[in-house]
Amino acid sequence: MTVAAADEHEILSWQLFGQASRELAETVHADGFAPDLILSIARGGLFVAGALGYALDVKNLHVMNVEFYTGVDERLEMPVMLPPVPEPVDLRGAKVLVADDVADTGATLALVKNYCQQHVAEVRCAVVYEKPRSTVHCEYVWRRTERWIDFPWSDRPPVTGARNKDA
């Protein structure tokens, strides 16, 4: 599949990401949700979780690595959690905010949310972008779009010269 023309892309600059993450945090705060911890879905969710952690004054950040995308609009049949998986004891009874850059199909968020629901008091999701086809409807969304998104952290190839298989 070919990537759409630039005018069919949603372009997120670093500056706009700063605005987006702050507005996303304000939405979480205005809703009265005070997470005990933020669970980042690596890799794109790392940036979102860090920004939300500072804005919401949450220092307890965890990371969950999930492999799903293998290239531009190419993915595995199902997402797979990669080690290390957060220990249930570290999540038990917590109010968790799952942070990611985009809810595209929703499969990754569903996997993480379902894992958390077995162990936590409450779990909610915050994303910068949500696409209409997402099976998970996030509680906190900065912007909804159908377009391909160019994120500032992945809009150029790695400095190694090779495009990572898990874009």
How do the strands and helices of this protein lay out in sequence?
Elements lengths: L8 E3 L2 H17 L6 E6 L1 H13 L4 E11 L2 E9 L5 H4 L3 E9 L3 H11 L4 E9 L9 E5 L3 E3 L17
Parallel strand pairs: 1-8, 2-3, 2-5, 5-6, 6-7
Antiparallel strand pairs: 3-4
In short:
This protein is an alpha/beta fold and 167 residues long.
Strand order of the largest sheet: 4-3-2-5-6-7
The assigned structural class equals alpha/beta
Biggest sheet descriptor: 6 strands, mixed
Low-confidence stretches: none
Total of helices: 4
Q: What does the average pLDDT come to?
A: 89
Give the SSE string.
EHEHEEHEHEEE
Could you explain how this protein is built, in words?
- 27% of the residues lie in helices and 33% in strands.
- It has helices at 14-30, 44-56, 88-91, 107-117; strands at residues 9-11, 37-42, 61-71, 74-82, 95-103, 122-130, 140-144, 148-150.
- The chain has a 6-stranded mixed sheet. Strands 1-8 form a two-stranded parallel sheet.
- Helix 1 (14-30) packs across helix 2.
- The longest helix is centred in the first third of the chain and has 17 residues, at 14-30.
- The model has no long low-confidence stretch (mean pLDDT 89).
Which features would summarize this protein structure in a list?
alpha/beta, 167 residues, 33% strand, six-stranded mixed beta sheet, 4 helices, two-stranded parallel sheet
